Amino acid sequence: MTTPEADELVGPTTELLQSLIRNECVNDGTPESGYETRNADLLQTYLEGAGLDVARFEKQEGRASIVARIEGSDPDAASLCLMGHTDVVPVNPEGWSREPFSGEVLDGEVWGRGAIDMLNITASMAVAFRRLANEGFQPKGDLIYFGVADEEAGGEWGAEFMVNEHWDAVGADYVVTELGGWSQVDGKGDRHIVINVGEKGIAWTRLRVKGTPAHGSMPFGADNALITAAEIVRRLAEFRPPARLDDIWRGQVASLDVPDDLRAALLDPSTVWDTIATLPPAAARIAHACTHTTISPNVAHGGQKTNTIPDSVDLDIDIRLIPGDTIETARGYLREAIGDLWDRVEITQLQHAEATRSATSNALWDTIATKAQATYPGARLQPGLIVGGTDARYFREKGSIAYGAGLYSPDVTFESFGQRFHGNDERIDTESLGLSAQFWHGLATDLVG
Question: Any bridge partners for residue 192, and if so which?
Fold first, then answer.
């Protein structure tokens, strides 16, 4: 499985990952959170150790991103950006069996928030980049390392800021970042490695449900905004948007080791919803998200006092748009789901981004396939769809080819990756760290070298 080069890269990647985890750059969505400057300092010091010049960018105090570059000799040659974010999502320690920011290595795995999402990639990219610099790598096209802040809250202080205001620093023809690289074996024994080529859109929406204030001691017949909001939440939870089964989904289903009748049911728009309900929970969640626009009521705010019937309740709805659906489509789904209560809500758009996708007929795709074959002979690349959001969308909107990529050990499966992503007991095996660092090193060498 591993090579001497990959084994040699395990140690430095593990150590850097542990330090990134221990810096606790927790992004709760507020401008003052994250404090990714801690990880920016760490990565800057690490890369400067190889004689690299590192530039810092900071739109919001404490939210620094860093950029290092190995200049290419040919200004017309294709460029490559290795992008890893430095922030992590919040954590509830009560759900963990280990301290979430210890970076502890246990039974060959590094534990901690961010181990999967995505500090393992941020670390392995930095290790590969530093090694290339130490080797005197002289590429034809520019090679860029981008350690970016604020991915977990949409990128306002990180990728969005950098792409819009500092494109000259981070712009590249090809970009690789999260989320991909796990693999699965189909019924014929063939291994398929998932490389995500696109991601769903975002239509985060706030519904303000109106009522009439009154005294809580006389609730009979009251126009209680909270009760109306509860009914709206129930309707949204039960609503079934139509399925959209594209070529990515068909390819994913073809790679599954499942009976033919189950495969056929997963490819039929009229049966896919009920068929998904028969799958194991982890697989069902992903399958549903890959085939439907999802509507998830996740936050409620309202009411002033226990003895006062509320006249206003806000519901924040996480809507993720399947490719082909638009924000207008999402508004139509909401109206259909809410039905006769539609005139009781006021709508505010919180965040919006259309779905994005990159083609696979290019040198980056071909090079990834070649480097994956070096570790997994005979493996095939499987295009995938990210059901959440990443910073890749900002680069795709600028015309870059951007993939969610990586290369992991066989222990990192579709199910385990999904369960640990933003979950309890997040961890990554050290074998995968060495494989990833070797993968980035080889990818850069072959693509821009």
Answer: 184, 380
Tell me the backbone φ, ψ of residue 385, rounded to 5 degrees: -120, 125
Residues of the chain with CATH 3.30.70.360: 200-353
Cβ within 8 Å of residue 263, ≥6 positions away:
253, 254, 256
Tokens found for residue 148: 């970016």
Those residues whose C-beta lies under 8 Å from the C-beta of residue 387, and which sit 6 or more positions away, are: 199, 200, 286, 289, 290, 294, 320
Q: Where in the chain is the domain with CATH 3.40.630.10?
A: 4-186+356-448
104, two tokens: 């502890």
Among 244, 228, 418, smallest CA distance to 330 is for 244
Contacts of 409 (CB under 8 A, 6+ apart): 1, 429, 431, 432, 435
Whether pLDDT at 166 is above 70? yes
Nearest CA-CA partner of 345 in 245, 243, 211? 211
Tokens of 425: 């007991």
List phi, psi (to 5°) of 313: -135, 130
Architecture of the domain delimited by 4-186+356-448: 3-Layer(aba) Sandwich (3.40)
Q: What is the pLDDT of residues 81-131, one digit of tens each?
A: 999 999 999 999 999 999 999 999 999 999 999 999 999 999 999 999 999
Q: At 369, give phi and psi (nearest 5°).
A: -60, -40
**Segment holding 308, helix H or strand E:** strand 308-309
Per DSSP, the three-state class of 119 is helix
As given in the structure block, the two tokens for residue 95 are 């759900």
Residue 152 in tokens: 């977990």
CATH class of 200-353: alpha beta
- Give dist(CA 55, CA 52) in Å, integer: 10
> How much is the pLDDT for 2?
67
- Please give the structure tokens belonging to residue 258: 């499942």
Q: Which of 362, 445, 449 is nearest to 402 (CA)?
A: 362
Over residues 134-157, the pLDDT tens digits come to: 999 999 999 999 999 999 998 999
Can you give the pTM of this predicted structure? 0.91
Residue with tokens 């206003």: 312
- C-alpha–C-alpha distance, residues 374 and 351, integer Å: 41
Position 62, amino acid: G
- Burial degree of 74 (CB within 10 A; 0-12, 13-18, 19+): exposed
